[in-house]
Design a protein that fits this description.
This protein is globular. The chain folds into 3 domains: 91 residues, Rossmann fold (3-Layer(aba) Sandwich), CATH 3.40.50; 191 residues, Mur-like, catalytic domain (UDP-N-acetylmuramoyl-L-alanine:D-glutamate ligase, 3-Layer(aba) Sandwich), CATH 3.40.1190.10; 180 residues, Alpha-Beta Complex (Protein-Tyrosine Phosphatase, Chain A). Strand 7 and strand 8 form a beta hairpin. Helix 5 crosses helix 12. With 484 residues, the chain is an alpha/beta fold. 45% of the residues are buried. The longest helix has 19 residues. A 7-stranded mixed β-sheet has the order 8-7-9-6-10-11-12, sandwiched between helices. A 6-stranded mixed β-sheet has the order 13-14-18-15-16-17, with helices on both faces.
Length: 484
């Protein structure tokens, strides 16, 4: 009989990758979650038995391990299963503890950082696969190159994992090599302040094995500000340290700009991080550039989802001096889906869109994620959308079991952004300030009609609109409805 593992919160992107690892190793895998999704449907088709209800009965029978997602806190629905497993004496692990055990069987390369982890992990994994390293990969997104999966089983002893700093989870890992893309004021509900975040990353660096490799972003002031402490640790453990940055004049940057298809300086930095690590591991430049040039993007990372048809547009202004009325017509607006949920990520994504399509209006539909994050970083959120043209704010996505009621919500944010537009647009115009209006939309089923109305009735110039649906909650469901 196959060994059996049960995953609580199996519909999460990380948990589903673990499920696929266990399946690949011959385990019988069961799981539970609170709702049906694309992920649960895919896992069921791969042979996983999933209950869409958390119940202690789900952990009956011959189970070797029960693994819970980070979302399964003592107040979350699924904790009843976790508690029942403990009562039965079954080994219980969190996601990061399980991934730590798995990765300990390999020479693990961990990709950490507040932003850019998934893209950098994806790029590095594809480069190493191309260069013959044949890595096993556990990643927080899905890749077309992996058959629309978040997992790849390799045959070598090399493993690439995404190392999340949430609740200091990445301190469970003991990698042979690591990348740190950046450090930011994120997960402040746990760390309280930036100093706490930085200290956790220093602890992560201390976990790198002797004679390992460390790749760091010198353009990030929080990372570079710890240079002395980092290099002191590296010297003690004989760790090779490589600094990268797009502010440098390296000829490699010209090579990357020539081959990359993904937009934005932030993605150029992610690609340079992957390039630096791969080169340090001995990959050939030709293989690295070929792999990076073929990268198609990842799930919910500026992912093209289709088009939204807009009908009966009376006119489309082609220039400020051309106000001709064109015949009523219809045309297709491209729709992109992005996971950005932190002010730094929002800024970087919008800047990347503006850089790639400088003549297009950007319609940003954003769903804030976690009340605590919105409250703690409120002023940063207010300033994050300057390069959008229109901003539509959906209601806050509250994480089950982790979010408490807050006076600061999406309506509060919409009012603050609109006030910034009205009071500061002229003063900010020289600073890439393009935002024309912001509104709160409590009903996501009205996204389509609101966008159409905005375009039809706008007194501003609207050229080649692009829609980007943004957030870490369930906004992707509304994206799917928009492009039907």
């Amino acid at each position: 009989m196959n060994k059996r593992v049960h995953l609580i919160g199996i519909g999460g992107i990380g948990m589903s990758a673990l499920a696929r690892w266990f399946l690949a190793k011959g385990y019988a895998v069961t799981g539970s979650d609170i709702e049906k999704s694309e992920i649960t449907d895919a896992l069921r088709s791969e042979g996983v038995s999933i209950s869409l209800r958390h119940n202690p009965k789900n952990v009956q029978g011959n189970i070797e391990q029960v693994i819970s997602s980070a979302a399964i806190t003592p107040t979350a629905q699924g904790y009843n299963e976790f508690r029942a497993a403990k009562k039965r004496g079954i080994e219980t692990l969190t996601y990061s503890e399980a991934l730590a055990l798995i990765s300990s069987e390999y020479a693990a390369i961990a990709v950490a950082g507040a932003h850019g982890k998934s893209t950098t992990t994806a790029l590095l994994s594809l480069v190493l696969a191309r260069a013959g390293f044949d890595p096993t990969v556990v990643i927080g997104t899905t890749l077309q190159e992996f058959g629309n999966s978040n997992f790849r089983l390799g045959r070598s002893n090399v493993c690439v994992i995404e190392a999340d700093e949430h609740n200091a989870a990445f301190l469970n890992y003991r990698p042979s090599a690591a990348i740190i893309t950046n450090i930011d004021r994120e997960h402040l509900d746990f760390y309280k302040n930036l100093a706490g975040v930085k200290e956790s990353f220093l602890q992560f660096i201390k976990n790198i094995k002797r004679n390992g490799i460390l790749v760091l972003n010198k353009d990030d002031r929080n990372v570079y500000g710890m240079k002395k402490q980092i290099e002191r640790r590296a010297k003690t453990a004989n760790i090779r340290v490589y600094w990268y940055g797009i502010s440098s004049r390296s000829p490699v940057l010209d090579n990357l700009r020539a081959v990359l298809k993904i937009p934005g300086d932030h993605n150029l930095g992610n690609a340079l991080a992957a390039y630096t690590m791969a080169a340090a591991l001995g990959a050939k430049k030709k293989d690295i550039l070929l792999a990076l040039g073929k990268y198609k993007g990842a799930w919910r990372r500026m992912e093209y989802r289709g088009t939204m048809r807009v009908s009966s547009i009376k006119y489309q202004v082609s220039s400020r001096n051309d106000k001709r009325q064109l015949p009523a017509t219809s045309y297709q607006l491209p729709v992109y889906d992005d996971y950005a949920h932190h002010p730094s990520e929002i800024k970087a994504t919008l800047a990347g869109i503006a850089q790639k399509w400088p003549k297009s209006a950007i319609i940003c539909v954003f769903q804030p994620h976690q009340a605590k994050r919105l409250a703690l970083l409120f002023e940063d959120f207010v300033k994050a959308f300057d390069q959008a043209t229109f901003l539509i704010l959906l209601d806050l996505y509250r994480v089950p079991g982790r979010d408490k009621a807050s006076k600061i919500n999406s309506k509060t944010l919409a009012n603050a952004v609109q006030k910034r537009i009205l009071t500061g647009s002229r003063r900010l115009a020289t600073n890439n300030f393009k935002l024309q209006t912001a509104m709160h939309l409590p009903s996501p089923t009205r996204i389509r009609s609101v966008i159409e109305t905005q375009i039809r009735n706008s007194k501003f110039e609207i050229r080649n609109p692009i829609i980007v649906m943004m957030g870490a909650g369930d906004i992707y469901k509304y994206t799917a409805a928009l492009v039907k």
